[in-house]
Amino acid sequence: MNKKLVAALSGGAALVMALTGCSDSDNGDKKLDDWAKTVCDQMQPQVKKIQDANSSIASVQNEEDSKKIQQTDSAAFQANADAYKALGSAVQNAGPPPVKDGETSQKNAVKALNDLSAAYTNLKKRMDGLDTGDKGKFAAGLKGIAGDIGKLSSQSDEALKKLQSGDVGKAMAKQPGCQKTSTSATPTKK
Question: Where is the composition biased (Polar residues) (predicted)?
Fold first, then answer.
């Protein structure tokens, strides 16, 4: 049953990766580049927290112990709630991007990120309330949570895509903190 939760979280991971998309376009707007740097410098550690939390949920997908699943998923939901809240604050504190409709895009993105944070807090509460003594009830509860995660991802995706459209997306893609991290080994310092 936890496999459905992992599948639903992969939608959330796609949302995070949308925030960290790459582009090779060049734009010489210094103000926009500065705005993107402000956001992206704070983004990468939060994206890593979300990825780590989702990995911990995936690590218990074949676990039989309901209590262990509950503890792992609950901690991951809290980590996601905190990370999305921090991402919302980063976008809020950066101010509107210096582009047409920047204020609207910023407001929509902050709302989407804060909504995700609140939703993960709610999922944590629901996870904590599941009856681990009854496998059937626990599985049904997990199924409901997985369905809600899938809905969350699609609801918030649009505002985040809009924030990263056009010149804002190009400026963000140039920032190291907003570039997709490679899964290959990083070189060691000599």
Answer: 178-190
SS (H, E, C) the chain: CHHHHHHHHHHHHHHHHHHCCCCCCCCCCHHHHHHHHHHHHHHHHHHHHHHHHHHHHHHCCCCCCHHHHHHHHHHHHHHHHHHHHHHHHHHHHHCCCCCCCHHHHHHHHHHHHHHHHHHHHHHHHHHHCCCCCCHHHHHHHHHHHHHHHHHHHHHHHHHHHHHCCHHHHHHHHCCHHHCCCCCCCCCCCC
Q: What is the pTM of this model?
A: 0.79
Tell me: the pLDDT tens digits for 123-150?
A: 999 999 999 999 899 989 988 888 887 7
